[in-house]
Amino acid sequence: MPDEDQATILIVDDDTNTLKGMRQFLSRPGREITAVERAREALETLGARPVDVMISDIRLPDMNGIQLMEEVRRTYPETDVILMTGYGSIQDAVEAMRMGAESYLTKPLNPDELEIVLSRILEKRALIRQNRELVRRLSGQRVSPDILGTSREIRAVLKTIREVAPTDVPVLIEGETGTGKELVARAIHRTSERAEGPFVVVNCAALHENLLESELFGHEKGAFTGAVKQKKGRFELASGGTLFLDEIGEMSLETQAKILRTLEYGTFERLGGTRSLRADVRILSATNRDLSEAIKKGTFREDLFYRLNVITLRVPPLRERKGDIPVLARAFLERFSTAQKKGIEGFSPEALRLLESYDWPGNVRELEHVIERAVILCPGREIGVESLPEHLREMAKGEEEGRSVVLPVGISLKEAEKALILKTLEAVGYHRGRAAEMLGISKRKIEYLLKAWGMGGLGKKAKKAS
Question: Which residues form the domain of 325?
């Protein structure tokens, strides 16, 4: 993004004396002024770098000033426009203001009037920037209302978001499917200096390779069969904001090369076009693949990887932060219960325990779907085990059977004692102290009995740990 302390001004006029005089008069510390004689040169300048204010004559040799303003307002909406002419009329002024000009001045110019108009525009832009910064700082106090949890792992993710958001560097977000990589990307955007700009998502895995390039860079009318009109690409649509490239590892090497060039030079061309356009975007990307392995296989460019991987942010799978499951489950319950107009108040202890014990290969997304299903099927005020999917219920049944000790009728008390102690040791990984605590006996007694049964070395490593 442009230096916010440096105002950039572009003057467009085919009269060299006017250009020279305006440049000299408007020069101030903190202003960078560029002067050009043609509309084409003005568009090239705007494509190469951000411009705060463009001051343009209406009569230009290669394009009408009104047409130039329309193109600027459409392609570079962040640039304010002042129009000037020696053939002014009230109708012209009204039309120019209606189409988006900040001001309309007649020649010969009054230098003081021009300075007043320009200063007013620059002051307004500075105030907007200050307001945006205030909003960003206030919103940064809560990184994201959608990223829930209090575990050490998720706190580390939120801490990294706070650290990288104020910068403009690319961030590569790694994580399994369903962990919430897009939520992390949105949180970075929401607390960044680009928060007022657009957040544009491209799912690289969902688009056919023939369409992906056009989606990213746009195309001109007639660029290929079916291109009946000009179309802006995602890089243009994200101007002034953030472009999120999801599943970046699914791109072809050809598209990777074009993205690399855009990142290196900050410009791109639409398909079928020749004019370079400025890519004023922050790039966030995400993958569920091991890109270093893809580099070894030759399916991902190493130079692009290092461009995208300035900062890496890993989103942990849900199985690594099971302490967050109750928080997430209750949040999903509240949302779906409200949506389904049900007064469900919570989970049974058995159901919550089952949710916490499951490994969730589909991560947070899978948990969300399970809770939605449970809300729909729940007949009462509390979600019980019976409302959970069958594979979770079967797991609970298997765990229950694994914790049970089946004793045949007529077994002696000594044999029953032995079976119970061995089964308990197995359940706790042969930690004798834990087994003794569960059985309500001393650890010394367990060691004595194991030795008496000729099993003194059972779980020797665990014995040392216990």
Answer: 319-403
